[in-house]
């Protein structure tokens, strides 16, 4: 189930997330773009192991955010939150994954059950991000310690940052799976520019496809 992300990518993602949790950053862990649920299962395993090892540590929520329908239609591949950009529009290159990424909510649940990690702390938010994230929970229930974004396209990448990055706590981490693709990388670059984010971007080491992250200052 982890073949899409790769074993090394999971290990390095887990290393960075644990670094943040060990630093005492408060909030949930969220993944936008779940696919089969392989990385979600790995992250949930980390959260469960931490509470098993330390009875004083509360089990954090793990938010799994996905359309569970694959990619949006071409007419929904733009973001009203993003600046004008050559990438913020329907592009044929953005549709090259169409039809290949759809995994139902029940499929993901079955995969998590298979590894016995589907517990009460796992929260599902089904739907396209421009529809679901505007109603993200307020208060401490919506705070994040770690945010992983893997949605391939410009618009949902930018919108995920627009709605969720403000809820990422100082010292938290935001990770990107798709910076190898121009449309996703451009969304990240545009968001950082608009919000004057100058924190150094780092890469997870030794992964087949580059994956970037930064720690929120």
What labels would you give this structure?
17% strand, Rossmann fold, alpha/beta, 217 residues
Give a structural overview.
β2 (62-66), α3 (105-114) and β3 (122-126) form a beta-alpha-beta unit. 32% of the residues lie in helices and 17% in strands. The mean pLDDT is 90. It has one domain: 3-Layer(aba) Sandwich (Rossmann fold). It has 6 helices and 7 strands, in the order αβαβαβαβαβαββ. With 217 residues, it is α/β, with parallel strands linked by helices. A 7-stranded mixed sheet has the order 3-2-1-4-5-7-6, sandwiched between helices.
Give a short overview:
This protein has helices at about 5-20, 40-55, 105-115, 130, 155-165, 180-195; strands at about 30, 60-65, 120-125, 145-150, 170-175, 200-205, 210-215. The protein is α/β, with parallel strands linked by helices. A hairpin with an 8-residue loop joins strand 6 (about 200-205) and strand 7.
Secondary-structure map with pairings?
Elements: H1 7-22, E1 28-32, H2 38-53, E2 62-66, H3 105-114, E3 122-126, H4 129-132, E4 144-149, H5 154-164, E5 168-176, H6 182-194, E6 202-203, E7 212-215
Parallel strand pairs: 1-2, 1-4, 2-3, 4-5
Antiparallel strand pairs: 5-7, 6-7
Helix pairs in contact: 1-2, 5-6
Radius of gyration: 16 Å
Number of discrete domains: 1
pLDDT < 50 runs, ≥5 residues? none
User: Which strand-content bin applies to the residues?
Assistant: 15-25%
The N- and C-terminal alpha carbons lie at a distance of: 34 Å
The helix count comes to: 6
Spatial order of the strands forming the largest sheet: 3-2-1-4-5-7-6
Query: Biggest β-sheet, characterized?
Result: 7 strands, mixed
CATH topology: Rossmann fold
Q: Which class best fits the helix and strand makeup? A: alpha/beta
- The CATH H-level superfamily is Vaccinia Virus protein VP39
Q: Average pLDDT across residues? A: 90
**CATH level-two architecture:** 3-Layer(aba) Sandwich
């Amino acid at each position: 189930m982890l073949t899409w992300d790769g074993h090394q990518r999971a290990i390095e993602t887990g290393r960075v997330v644990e670094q943040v949790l060990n630093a005492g950053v408060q909030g949930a862990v969220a993944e936008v773009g779940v696919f089969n649920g392989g990385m979600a299962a790995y992250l949930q395993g980390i959260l469960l192991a931490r509470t098993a090892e330390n009875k004083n540590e509360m089990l954090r929520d793990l938010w799994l955010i996905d359309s569970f329908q694959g990619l949006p239609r071409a007419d929904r591949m733009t973001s009203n939150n993003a600046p004008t950009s050559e990438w913020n529009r329907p592009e044929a290159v953005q549709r090259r994954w169409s039809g290949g990424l759809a995994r139902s909510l029940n499929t993901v649940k079955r995969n998590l059950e298979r590894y016995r990690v589907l517990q009460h702390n796992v929260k599902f938010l089904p739907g396209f991000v421009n529809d679901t994230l505007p109603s993200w929970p307020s208060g401490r229930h919506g705070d994040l310690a770690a945010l992983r974004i893997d949605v391939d396209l410009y618009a949902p990448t930018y919108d995920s940052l627009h709605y969720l990055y403000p809820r990422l706590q100082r010292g938290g981490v935001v990770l990107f799976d798709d910076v190898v693709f121009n449309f996703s990388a451009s969304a990240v670059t545009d968001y950082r520019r608009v919000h004057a984010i100058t924190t150094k971007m780092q890469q997870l080491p030794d992964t087949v496809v580059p994956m970037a992250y930064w720690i929120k200052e």
